[in-house]
Amino acid sequence: MTKRYCLVFICLLIIGPFGCSRNDDVQKVNLLKKIDAKNTEQPSGESPVRIAVGGMTTPRAGYIYYKKLLNYIGGKLGRKVEFVDREDYAAINNMLQNREIDVAFVCGGPYVDGHEEFGLELLVAPVAYGGTVYHSYIIAPKDSPLNSFKELRGKTFAFSDPLSNSGKLIPTYMLAKMNETPESFFKSFYYTHAHDKSIKAVATGAVDGAAVDSLIWEYANHTNPEFTSKTKIIEKSSPHGIPPVVIRHGMDTGLKERLRQIFLNVHNDIKGQEILKGMMIEKFVPIDDNAYDSIREMMQWVEKQKGKKG
């Protein structure tokens, strides 16, 4: 099979039943239409709050709970909330920088990049599985003879997003510590742009291994193990700061605090508890920027290794 047709085959395999119902009350933004940043935060309070969902603690099958959460936030805020459906982390960061969206659920890596580049701010972080940390799981097919990351040399591999911490940075850092790069270590590698798609790619044998978000693998394994049951974890990374909820730089202080208080109190009423239960999140809590220092250290190490090779 040629490389071209192999790539098409893999793409077909990873596009699967991970979608979710779109029949909900949150308005979806047409991303092809430019949003005028001047229309944000009108004194009348009628302008919508635009929230993007990128880094999640669930696969796309759990998307409906994020939409319910946004509906909940809009109700508490007394203001329309627009749901921005975008998987690409770079696109979300670009929209935050340009004030085209106000709030986003992001991965730790894009937060660190955005914080350094344009003042992206932390709002809150979820508590999941007892803490505010998560891991990168290196997975392989369950019946594979592979039992460690090092054994993936010369194999095919799936990353999620180029800016993903668990799905790209961590395994790239692991390779850098071995004086390797994805190009030198793997036979070939691909981007699926979603952790659940990476899980499916491994489960169906489309690739020999993948790096996935531990939160998403665990969620899928608890709720619908169709594909996780066909994979095995061959390596688990050290813990890193959990994907946070962030806000764009320059948001009105009053709106920022109202949003923070809504998130911090979701678990205090029955409706909020039901939503969080569906997301396998216990509650939202404040989190400090230094929770993401380990991600910064990995980024610096990888760049340093690139410099040496250059």
Structural overview:
The protein has 310 residues and is an alpha/beta fold. It has 2 domains: 27-31 and 42-132 and 242-292, D-Maltodextrin-Binding Protein, domain 2 (3-Layer(aba) Sandwich); 133-240, Periplasmic binding protein-like II (D-Maltodextrin-Binding Protein, domain 2), CATH 3.40.190. The chain has 11 helices and 14 strands. It has helices spanning 3-14, 63-77, 89-97, 108-118, 165-177, 182-185, 195-203, 214-223, 253-264, 270-279, 293-309, and strands at 27-28, 49-53, 81-85, 103-105, 121-127, 133-134, 136-141, 156-159, 188-191, 209-213, 231-236, 240-241, 245-247, 283-285. The strands form 3 sheets. A 7-stranded mixed β-sheet has the order 1-3-2-4-13-5-14. Helix 5 (165-177) crosses helix 11. The protein is globular, with a radius of gyration of 19 Å. It starts with a helix and ends with a helix. Residues 1-45 have low confidence and may be disordered.
